[in-house]
Batch of 2 targets.
Target 1
Amino acid sequence: MSAEQALAESEARFRALVTASADVVYRVSADFHELRQLEGRMFVEASTVPNRDWFEHYVYPGDRERVRGAIHEAIGRKVAFDTEHRVFRADGTVGWVHARSVPMLDAEGGILEWIGMASDITQRKRAEHEFQDQRRMYEAILTNTPDLAYVWNLEHRFIYANEGLLRMWGRTWEEAIGRNCLELGYEPWHAAMHDREIDQIVATRQPVRGEVPFDGAFGRRVYDYLLVPVFGTSGEVEAVAGTTRDVTERKQLEGSLIDADRRKDEFLATLAHELRNPLAPIRNAVHLLKAGNPTGDSVRMAREIIDRQVNHMVRLVDDLMDVSRITVGQVNLRNERVSLRRVIDDALEAAAPAIEAGNHRLVVDVPGASLQLEGDATRLSQVFQNLLDNAAKYTPPGGTITLRAEQRGEQIVVSVRDSGIGIAADAQPRVFELFTRVHPNDRIKTSGLGIGLSLAKKLVELHMGDIEVRSEGFGLGSEFIVTLPAMTAAQAPAPGAEPMVTRIRPDTSRRVLVVDDNRDAAESLGMLLELEQCKVSVAYDGLRALELLETFKPEVALLDIGMPGMDGYELARRIRATQRGRDVLLVALTGWGQADDKKRAAEAGFDEHLTKPVDPELLSRVLHRRGSVAA
Ligand code: ADP
């Protein structure tokens, strides 16, 4: 073999070797401008690459500057260099290459030319980019989630902790990564618990869930955590990953729900008890009346019992309805200028039976009519009646109840103090909560639904006021202090401007039609009206009522609203549509006295709207008011 042949063969072997490991081999001039040779498995079409402008033809514009920089540096230092950059491929698409160029030096060390090779790394780059995209995505999630996320290696050291966890620890990544729980300040029992859990997950390959309190940068909070195995490619547990959620608020909410549920159950039990209590005496009184020949005394006694007990029940139900209305914001105050004296007198009158029953001494110290405020007199009296009733109820017989009022600056301050059983300090914050009874039944035998004070508080707040409780403790009496905004002298009305009370002139022999599908209710109301000297006719449905309108010719019609078939509204409209019905005084009787119901009643043509059970005195006033106007 000639030397020339041997050289050619060696060159061919060399080229084969290079092209086997690269896609392209090339030779370029020392200054890199001229492409002298280009060969190999082509992802560029060699014939299309020009010799001089090869760089622009081949290298992707966005990468040219960087690659030129590398070339210049390599030329200056006469060393081999690598670049990864984008190129235009033969099919016009953009791909990635890894190019390595080696300088060939002459005897003086000058660069003769560069020899290089390039491989297509588009696939690898694509995978890398996908990986980086995914990583960015996961990072976005892990950084922004409110949960804490972390990974332990099998030495129980943290190899990852997300932003949230670092914040909770109050540490930087550098301070935390590579440490275990104990080194990060976990209490020993807590660290030991996680150590056990990690070992368990490695052994069982199953997740572990738990709940734990922890004192971190945000104070002591309760955390719910889930630890899961991270499997390696061959299926063995390689690490343990965890996510932890702050459940403090949820726990508190759960606690208060459980508490509310318990109170509701207690309330229902108490309610049943409270409603049943008055029924026994009523039933006894009815028996008394049914007895062969009731004497005048026993009739009077029975009447008083029924009256008292019914009043008690009505109050219970009224309170209940008031609370629910206030809770849903349906109570409208009828505000007017009122004198505190009047409000308190009304309350004292209403609470008198309870105070007398307890044989209590009552001390009242309220300035004259000069103390004025703006408010709903009935509602304000209700507040003080509640406080007085409680004082009477929670004071053993023969105690002292003191009611004092005074003006302090722009406030009116009313205190109701008793010498009774008092309220323990820890129970005081709860007394204004709905359905709260702070004295267990077995210690104090009293009635009550735990509504009164909650109602009083809400009513006082509706008047822009405040109520608080004071007691030195159990057995040491209680004091409730109500503060309300006073009216200044300028706002107060001139003397003598109090509205005149119209004298009611009793009217006899009114013709009254009573309509109610509840026969007992209709009949008993009819009897009551007869006692008032009215002429009464009773109907149990709307159609009969319309007949009676023509035959009986009532002046007044009392209509129940909720009736099957034709309801009270419809009946009122029909009555109003007749010739005779135009001037009849129409009174609606409903279980609901809400503003909406009153509006509906007025729209249907009613003149008056009364809530059941009707207070006979109020009814009598309504009947006679029209009477005196008409007379
Ligand atoms: P109740 O219908 O049970 O009286 P309240 O809301 O009026 O409901 O009162 C709530 C609880 O506060 C009562 O059950 C009682 O334990 C306590 N309480 C209220 N007033 C007094 C008082 N004057 N003295 C002692 N305890 C009181």
Note: DSSP finds 18 helices and 22 strands in the chain.
Target 2
Amino acid sequence: MNSSDVLNDLRRRFPNEPEYLQAVEEVLTTIEDAYNEHPEFERYNLIERLCIPDRIFSFRVSWVDDKGRVQNNMGYRVQHNNAIGPYKGGIRFHSSVNLSILKFLAFEQTFKNSLTTLAMGGGKGGSDFNPKGKSDMEIMRFCQAFVAELWRHIGPDTDVPAGDIGVGGREVGYMFGMYKKMAREHTGTFTGKGIEFGGSLVRPEATGYGNVYFLLNMLATRGIDIKGKKVAISGSGNVATYTADKLLQLGAKVVTMSDSNGTIYVPDGLTREQLDYIFKLKNIYRGRIREFAEEYGCEYFEGGRPWGVKCDIAMPSATQNELDGDDARTLLANGCIAVSEGANMPSTPEAVHEFINAKILYAPGKAANAGGVSVSGLEMAQNAQMLSWSAEEVDKKLKDIMANIHAQCLRYGKQEDGYVNYVKGANVAGFMKVANAMMAQGIL
Ligand code: NDP
């Protein structure tokens, strides 16, 4: 394979999909050497079959708002690859959702799921529905209309969706309820469900906690203690808040959080009471992070991102391409020693280049945020057995999985000078398993 030939061909065929092309480019350029050691892969044109999704469903979602007006959104499910298990990946509700974003997420998910060591393929779905400002009833009607179409394409052994941006426990509950009604079955078709109807303990916490566990593994390679370290987090949703929660438990200082309107800055670190306030603000009152600054009188950067403040560690946990080359240079100049991604592809290629060039600890999302889908996999296992495991049991498995992902990154990403390129490590490790499974199953 010549990665630039493959990329040029994909650019010609999918010219309007920049995020998808960005994600593919990052993977192809790092796996090229490993791929080319296996001439049989090339004979079966494996790379193209791995880059192009198995299938994509797109559909109109019509629903009625509280004023009685009929609203129409687009719904999608990208089933990317099921070589190692059923398609698995979240559902995103955000006005920016389009096929480029979902294809990049489904592609990334395939490698991430492979790294978890669990039997899960890769998929992703969502809608350009904007949940902001919608009433609970509107959210419910939208979720039901979305699943009225989607349910035909998913199932416990086929495709298992979960949450993502704009989709948390409430939305998963409504979607699962509708699925159950349409399919007339109560199975583990969604993950992130409520505890009362098949959800797993520690699933809400899993992505954030998992990212911190991964970070601890990285820091250990350099003998660095997390205690007292200043951490800049972006976002204030599921991933960001549970990242902050675990960091506080470990004695680190969380100095920023944000939303799409701005960033709060607390130089001495959030207190537990302040984090609880953010949790309530976001999950119960569905307010803005600005309200935290008003309540506690801290600094607030309207429209600003967290990356300009002094910190030791950055954990971008909001959305793709939220940290660019300039942000990376500012972080490095301010003494940042580690970046561990909670979001998917939050750093632009230029930013990634800066981090790797500076040889700081840098973990890409597909490794560092894999804890969420890992506990989703554990939820599927519990559902299949009709059992539920204790929080301690799930948390222990999560820690082991993150340590295992870290070990795979070391195995494939350690350079001659000892520096660990986690991007390469994660991509090659994730790729080899999927590639071998695809080879064994023939051309499909
Ligand atoms: P949530 O919807 O719970 O939170 C998203 C947060 O990011 C909110 O604070 C939101 O602010 C902010 N945000 C969203 N879009 C933008 C944007 N365009 N610009 C600036 N801020 C933005 O989502 P999650 O916490 O679940 O997901 C966050 C990231 O983590 C995503 O990249 C997701 O793919 C990834 N991820 C999530 C997993 C999970 O288990 N939930 C698993 C693995 C990865 P606002 O409220 O203003 O929109």
Note: Residues 206-368 form a domain with the Rossmann fold fold (CATH 3.40.50.720).
